[in-house]
């Protein structure tokens, strides 16, 4: 059973509070599905330099480095989850509309203004 399903079965939240810049650096968290937190975001942080991740002396420079790394990792995660998956859906929708309405299904509709200009 996956982490999220186990938590739901136990009456708990299926989300984790991901510390974007690592807990030692910034208190900022992002509510993240527990499976994604464990499989994607935490492993990404584990690839950071240990000193940046743990920041034992509370260096402000390492805190900024962690913020930059955390932003980059989180942005990549969100891009994959929110944007890349939409592209496949849009491609499937275009094929469906072409099948139902013809090759240039957008002509004569309000969507026509978004067609690339030649």
Give the topology, please:
Elements: H1 3-9, E1 15-19, E2 29-33, H2 34-46, H3 50-54, H4 60-101
Antiparallel strand pairs: 1-2
Helix pairs in contact: 2-4
Rounded mean pLDDT is 96
Task: Give the percentage of residues in beta strands.
Answer: 5-15%
Question: How are the strands of the largest sheet arranged?
Answer: 1-2
What share of the residues lie within helices? Answer: 55-70%
Poorly predicted segments: none
By DSSP, the count of extended strands is 2
Order of helices and strands: HEEHHH
Output the number of helix runs.
4
Instruction: Sum up the overall morphology in one term.
Output: elongated
Main sheet summary: 2 strands, antiparallel
Secondary structure class reads: mainly alpha
Compute the separation of the termini in Å: 52 Å
Compute the gyration radius: what is it?
21 Å
Explain what the structure shows.
- The protein has a domain at 7-85.
- It starts with a helix and ends in a 17-residue tail after the last helix.
- With 118 residues, the chain is mainly alpha-helical.
- The chain is built from four helices and two strands, in the order αββααα.
- It has a two-stranded antiparallel sheet with strand order 1-2.
Short description, anyone?
With 118 residues, the protein is mostly helical.
Question: Which tags fit this structure?
Answer:
2 strands; 118 residues; mainly alpha
